[in-house]
Amino acid sequence: MSVTIKLPTPLRRHAGQAKVLEVEAATVGEALGKLVEAHPAMRDSLFDSEGRVKQWVRVFLGERDIDDQRGVETPIADGDVISIIPPIAGA
Amino acid sequence: MLSEWDLEKFRRQIQIPGLGEEGQEKLKAASVLVTRVGGLGGPTALWLAAAGVGKIVIAHDGVVTPSNLNRMILVRGDGVGKPRAPQMEETLRRFNPDVKVVAVDANATQENVGELVGQVDVVCDTTPHFGERILLNSECWRQGKPMVDAGMNGMEAQLTTILPPDSPCLACRVPEVPEWWHPLGFGVLGAVAGSLGALAAVEVVKLITGYGEPLVGRLLSYDAEDMTFNVYGLHKRPGCEVCG
């Protein structure tokens, strides 16, 4: 399945300032794995030392939080969009 | 009770179906805390003053620096080197002499947060420090006060409304200060911060008047670079230390 991953500002510097990337994956976890495989500098921003998505990084498939679905096991369909939304506090 | 002057002054917003004179009376009787009052909170406070909120408490320490002037619309160009809070207060009073403005020359701290939150009906969290945000969230939850939470980073912006006791709180989404965040490490285009500040004021007006549908349990996220707007669903985090 081809899935689009939308990157937030803080992660774009690890991907040549790309805002959007495309990967092939069957689940959200697989898509995030391929993302950090291609851009290893993102790993520490996205995952904790045990390989779990950090608590303050919200990952949405469409407009639903994956934690309200099946977490990283959430299956994806062709053309889906994953949004990575970390909290921001600029004022 | 609205005066003849109020009715004429706010005629155009009283005209909005569903807001009306009843909504305007609620605004007049309401009090709001805005902390801090920079590129984001400044426009929020200004629009709340324009809308006729009766009392606005603003909290922001320090003096005006040259780099504040691309976004802090409540301070003056000739006010560099002088305290921010009195300039912000003066701008709000000049715009709406009927509003009661309480200017606090301090940011939210463990020592003052109870008093700051305790004197208002609604809190508007517009600070660049996650530590202050987390503190305000906890205190609002403790006192049962709604909090509008707005943040931006470069061309991106986020907005949500936290409404105890049922909505998700900030700590559900931000259980700890993200290690990558630096309060001065983000770019700001004043108009982006200002657009978010205006939307935050809309949320406050809705909370006070009961008009419309606030962003409770929802996160508005937009990117002004390509003008894409999305609304995401938020959930309570099981075991949340604040609201769980």
Protein topology:
The complex is a heterodimer of chains A (91) and B (244).
Chain A: E1 2-6, H1 9-12, E2 20-24, H2 28-38, H3 43-46, E3 58-61, E4 64-65, E5 81-85
Chain B: H1 4-9, H2 11-14, H3 20-29, E1 31-35, H4 41-51, E2 55-59, H5 84-95, E3 100-104, H6 113-118, E4 122-125, H7 130-143, E5 147-153, E6 156-162, H8 170-173, H9 190-209, E7 218-223, E8 228-233
Parallel strand pairs in B: 1-2, 1-4, 2-3, 4-5
Antiparallel strand pairs in B: 5-6, 6-7, 7-8
Helix pairs in contact in B: 4-5, 4-9
Largest sheet of chain B: 8 strands, mixed
Termini separation of chain A comes to: 38 Å
* The CATH architecture of chain B: 3-Layer(aba) Sandwich
Q: In CATH's first tier, which class of chain B applies?
A: Alpha Beta
Rounded Rg of chain A: 12 Å
Indicate the mean pLDDT of chain B.
96
Q: Give the CATH H-level superfamily of chain A.
A: Beta-grasp domain
Shape estimate of chain B: globular
Provide the residue-averaged pLDDT of chain A: 94
> Unreliable segments of chain A (pLDDT under 50, ≥5 consecutive)?
none
Distance between the termini of chain B: 40 Å
Strand order in the sheet with the most strands of chain B: 3-2-1-4-5-6-7-8
Encode the helix/strand succession of chain A as letters.
EHEHHEEE
Report the CATH architecture of chain A: Roll
For the biggest sheet of chain A, the summary is: 5 strands, mixed
- Tell me how many strands of chain A there are: 5
Question: In CATH, what is the homologous superfamily of chain B?
Answer: NAD(P)-binding Rossmann-like Domain
Order of helices and strands of chain B: HHHEHEHEHEHEEHHEE
Number of domains of chain A: 1
From the 3D structure, determine the CATH topology of chain A: Ubiquitin-like (UB roll)
Radius of gyration of chain B: 17 Å
